[in-house]
Amino acid sequence: MTVFAVEYVYAADSTEARNEARPAHREWLAGLAQDGVLLASGPYGDGAGALLIFKTADEAALNSILKQDPFAAAGVIAGTRITEWSPIIGVLAGLTA
Asked: Which of 2, 46, 79, 82 is least surrounded by CB atoms within 10 angstroms?
């Protein structure tokens, strides 16, 4: 399994649409967390985006999961950056071993 850091950049003027989609988005995230796929997530303090940490088999599997996000369906994500990540120290250390 591989750990990925996913950065969302929200579309400009998408606050209202995000507020409408947020309950479904958080329910979706909670299910992924319960399944051990989502390790952590949360919005940036400035409201411009969010950081999500996933553990999946590969990037193709991650992309398949991200397509299911209610925020994606609502069109509020302007950009996504996916980076393979190897946590070495801290509570997430050793996840890729």
From this structure: 46
